[in-house]
Amino acid sequence: MDFNEFKKCVAEEAKALGIADFELYYTCGESTELEAFGHEINGFTSSVEGGVSLRCALNGKMGYASTQALSEAEARALVRRAAENAATLESEEPALFVEGGQIYEEHPAPSYPLPDAAQLKKTLLEIQEKLLAADPMVLDNSQSYAASGTESVAIFNSRGLDVSVSAGIASFHVAPIVGNGEEMSNDYEFKLGDPAKIDFDQLIAKAVTGAKNKLGGTVPATGAMPVVFSPEAMSSLLGTFSSAFSSEMAQKGLSALRDKEGQVVAAPNVTLVDDPFFEGIAMPMPFDAEGSPTHKKNVIEKGKLLTLLYNLQTASKAGKTTTGNAAKAGYASKVGVRPFVMYLEPGTLSEDELLEKAGSGVYINMLGGLHAGANPISGDFSLQSGGFLIENGKKTSPIKSFTVAGNFFAMLSAIRDIASNLEPPRGGGATGFTSPSVLVDGLTVAGK
Amino acid sequence: MIPKDLCERVLGVAVSTGADYAELFAENTLNHTIEMVGGKVDAINDNVIAGAAIRVYKGLRSVMASTVDTSEAGLLKCARRVADALGEGKAEIAIHLSERVLANIHPVLDAPSSVANVRKVDILRAASGAAKEYNGAVRQVTGTFLDVDHNILIASTDGVYAQDRQIRTRLVIRAVAEINGQTQTGSCSPGRRMGMEMFDGVIDPVAVGKEAARHAVIMAGAGYCPAGVMPVAIENGFGGVIFHEACGHSLEASSVAYNASQFCGKLGQKIASEKVTAIDDGTIPNAWGSINIDDEGTPSRKRVLIEKGVLKTYMIDKFNGRRMGMESTASSRRQSYSYTPTSRMTNTYIAAGEDRNEDIIASIEYGLYAKKMGGGSVNPVTGEFNFAVDEGYIVRNGRICEPVRGASLVGKGSEIIQKIDMVGTDLDMGQGMCGSSSGSIPTNVGQPLIRVSSITVGGR
Q1: What is the ipTM of this complex?
Q2: Topology classification of domain B112-150+167-221
Q3: Of B224, B215, B204, nearest in space to B175 by CA
Q4: Cα first-last separation, chain A
Q5: Which of A308, A382, B78, B129 has CB 3.0 to 4.6 Å from A247, enough for a Cys bridge?
Q6: Would you call A186 an interface residue with chain B, using a CB distance cutoff of 8 Å?
Q7: How many CB pairs lie under 8 A apart between chains A and B?
Q8: Which residues in chain A (56-85) have CB-CB distances under 8 A to chain B?
Q9: Are B459 and A380 a contacting pair at CB < 8 A?
Q10: Where are the domains of chain B?
């Protein structure tokens, strides 16, 4: 049964149970993924994935149920399950739906011919050969990967909303392992887009250099010192603490930024932006997970928190309008709040000039264990790190097996400067985090 | 689920272009969660995951395709996609499935999937209320009641036709406490491969709520952990995450088969302190990480990974076993049908030793006592790992002193397991979700109280 037939069955069952308002959120993804090892393709995966989530209002409560099985019996069971769930809810949040007839900004997704399985295989074998030959230190257990697929999202509700968007995405990933006879190290690089326009030599060189740079790393001394976070490291910190900008977390008492709208929360050089249409994003989203139109906004402007991010429900509770940031982690998730592409606005210095300004300290380009060593509610973090020493204003020898510790919210006020090297987020899809390199004071490095 | 004769036909199509092995994995799973915020039911989510994946091998190559269409036509079409992707050739193997009826070593008495929401809400309310009432510093309490009814069928050309129903239940309580403007969190999240009977004598919801609140309140009053290299005593239960990260992942065939592990080629060699005997056991009755069969249909078993410091075996799945020239150890696991399975852990722990707890603490002149651990991660190629200390105390002159927050431990697995120089007697397990290439799966970690003679403590 296809989605349109499924919609009809759900509508009939909802009517039979006296449910006036409901919404179906549907995602579908098709992908082909290839893995290269040695001189051949050793893994091939083709998947079709997706599912549908029903939200319905019963006595003012929003019940949810989801499924991957599109059949008539499942459609009817889905409505009954959602109704039972609605009857159990106790929160006093209103059940709200977006009306049809909204006006959406138009930002088409990057468009290029998607490689089929045969083209993907040919490209990947070429990449793998280049990777194995890139440097004498590259070991023969280095791997590369390629994937191609389409993703689509559709929302349909009883108030006349009927929107959908889809995007085709090809991605390439190289994972060199290098060795010097004594130790091994690894790194990876990832690129989305038209394989005809990607410079794979450059991608491979960057990954191989990254892996080689980790060989022979030493453990730095313990102490407080200036820290420069690379774009990758700062992006992952932003992502880890981004839930603090969610009005949902604030309303539940789980954000340190609750009641801080309109106040100064960061250094005057900090402007934090959320942009669903960031140049180069794989899937620009004209609507959010409730179907509201999306737009670009400053969350922090010159240090002042202008707004948290809202969906319909949290906005209604706060007496505000939605910022178009309703989000679902997957089709089956409850509607929550999340940024699209969140980034720190770039400054004017090059990264080299930023390092010069730091003088001495550490440059961190790897952070590990963000899911465990960082607490988005308190802002505290203590994280495994890797990178380089900064001596006399320059990156010098590699360092590893140390931690960097501090508090994210205190750190926002201790950002001394921001470089100009902003790039699109590394991941695929509609969301991500990105940042230029930043220079921060007041953090502690624990090494030897 | 899918009858044997249809499985045989599907596998027949899958091997029609020359594969030397084919496997069908079908799944029907109900995931159900109830979220409570501030004592009120805030959200309920239930989701049916239903689909199948077909995988073939030819030598060291594998091809997998997945589908949500588990009708006869859908499965045959999926098998054709796999056969076409493998390339040209002709069928070379015959298929005869024989049903394997396995003893259910993890019986479930009261399946949560057939229980009304209200019973689960009552449990959440009891736990959440106990956390809120624990202490005036507790500002907020959130809770999750989570149950999974995971039904799988595996049929493969080596004759396997087996099914398993894997039910698990978990209660998660998180408390937020504030003291003098300092906000900290605490949690407690026990789970078992059991149904509602878990709450009849195994897990007490009130105790879970109180523990989450106790943890939050202690941390809200704690100062920062100092940074440096020092001896650390790591408590039992979830403390076992040290072995899981520092060593366990690097013993999985997914790294070892590709020569991408710090422990490649070390079988029979001493890789850890002789105090360390480490086990991965999927057969512990009703434990969080237990299974009757792995996701390739191999009956679950107990594996001694390290015995008195000597490496005895890796954790191996059928596909990676080919590259290693070794048999499966029943270690193949996947989150769901859409993930390619690979070798993973089940219930992994450091076995009880002979040191007394008081002697372990008394041996530390200045160091850290890590009472509660958080999660961590590792790079198996280098062995560099990290994990968070969620509740720590400074140890001075052999005595546990003030609590400290914000600590993490980092190091290199192969070095740290040599430095485990004291192992206590009181083995216990803690529950976690382990994320890796084949998705997020339930695993237990465990150990008695242990001492690591020196490790880098990340604090400030």
Answers
A1: 0.88
A2: PmbA/TldD fold (3.30.2290)
A3: B215
A4: 62
A5: A308
A6: yes
A7: 239
A8: 63-70, 74, 81, 84-85
A9: no
A10: 112-150+167-221, 228-458
A218 interface with B at CB cutoff 8 Å: no
Q: Give residues with Cβ within 8 angstroms of A345, minimum separation 6.
A: A271, A272, A273, A418, A422
B117-174 tens-digit pLDDT: 999 999 999 999 999 999 999 999 999 999 999 999 999 999 999 999 999 999 999 9
Spatial neighbors of B361 by CB under 8 A, at least 6 apart, are B233, B369, B395, B398, B399, B400
The closest CB to that of B410, out of A46, A65, A401, belongs to A401
Structure tokens at A189: 């690089």
DSSP string, A165-228: EEEEEEEEEEE-EEE-SS-EEE--EEEES-GGG--HHHHHHHHHHHHHHTTT-BPPPPEEEEEE
Interface of B with A in 91-120 (CB under 8 A): 117-118
Question: If you average pLDDT over every residue of chain A, what do you get?
Answer: 94
- Chain A residues with CB under 8 Å of B67 CB are 48
Q: What digits encode the pLDDT tens for the residues B324-350?
A: 999 999 999 999 999 999 999 999 999
Cβ–Cβ of B47/A67 closer than 8 Å?
yes
List C-alpha distances in Å: A177 to A204, A215, B77, B379. Answer: 12, 11, 38, 12
Contacts of B141 in chain A (CB under 8 A): none
Interchain pair B260, A404: CB under 8 A: no
pLDDT in tens, A161-186: 999 999 999 999 999 999 998 899 99
Please judge whether A373 and B388 are an interchain contact, meaning their C-beta atoms are less than 8 angstroms apart.
yes
Reported as type and span, the H/E element at residue A318 is helix A312-318
The stretches of A44-116 forming alpha helices (DSSP H) are 72-88
Residue B416 to chain A, least CA–CA distance (Å): 12
Determine the 3-state secondary structure of A357 from DSSP: helix
Q: Could you tell me if B159 lies within 8 Å of chain A, comparing CB atoms?
A: no
d(CA A272, CA A379): 17
For the ranges A84-88, B170-174, B363-367, the lowest mean pLDDT is seen at A84-88
pLDDT at A235: 97
Q: Closest Cα of chain B to A106: distance in Å?
A: 32
- Note whether A43 contacts B42, CB cutoff 8 Å: no
Q: Phi/psi at B407 (nearest 5 deg)?
A: -100, 150
For B135, half-sphere exposure in the C-beta direction (CA atoms, 13 angstrom radius) is 20
Residues 6+ apart with CB under 8 A from A224: A442, A443, A444, A445, B460
Residue B410, classed as helix, strand or coil, is strand
Across the interface, whether the CB atoms of B408 and A382 are under 8 A apart is answered: yes
Other CB atoms within a 10 A radius of the CB of residue B306 amount to 25
Tens digit of pLDDT for each residue in A95-116?
Answer: 899 999 999 999 988 889 999 9
Residues of chain B positioned with their CB less than 8 A from the CB of A219: 456
